[in-house]
# Entry
Amino acid sequence: MKIEGKNIVITGGASGIGKALAERFHAEGAKGITVADLQEGPLNEVAKSVNGLSVHCNVAREADIQNVVARAEEAFGPIDVFVSNAGIARYGWEESDDDIWQLNWDIHVMAHVYAARAVVKKMIANGGGYLVNTASAAGLLSQVDSATYATTKHAAVAFAETLSIRYGDKGICVSVLCPQSVRTAMTASLLDGVASVDGVLEPEQLADCVVETMDKEEFLILPHPQVREYMMRKAGDYDRWLKGMRKLRDAYVK
# Structure
């Protein structure tokens, strides 16, 4: 899909990956860009810079996402692309409180579900559309220092797969964004961890990769191409891969 002339919604749009995507889509000639986030001040600045619309939104609330969609449609017409990008870094293990698990689940999984509920049928009726769901390389591989993050990011990838399987022949393209380390405010304290072993990308580099992959309409968006090789190693010898992940854990987890 070409971005020019498209109406695009981006959640988590106030900073980091979302901000970079909004700027890149604007440069590509998007017709309308709606950015949604909890951070109203920075969000308004991003919207102004791309001649777009800002909408305050908590993606863990389905009504908020429905409101974003309604506002975007009112401003720019039918939605062509929905980028479900919001995420959090609230790490935990099996002993972590249920509220930490629930928060990860709501932001990393249910936000994608709510977005699909809000736009897919409309996109089909309008002749097609594109869903881009931000997950993580942790959703394809794993995370050595957080069960809450790895589990919900795996679920995010699985949900994107089911969307592609169900709607790929009905005009709906689906891509899932699975980077390793990206330099954002959310990950500032994590940049020296295991996710940075293949380098830390700037959000603008990631945005370039998103546009290139959307142009080819491929499912996996892999800004760090090494991830594909790691996936093959994992599938080729699961036990050996798990041993390797334990070595990474010992090297990086304090």
About this structure: The chain has a mean pLDDT of 95. The first strand starts at residue 7 and ends at 11. The two ends are 44 Å apart (CA to CA). The chain has one domain: 7-252.
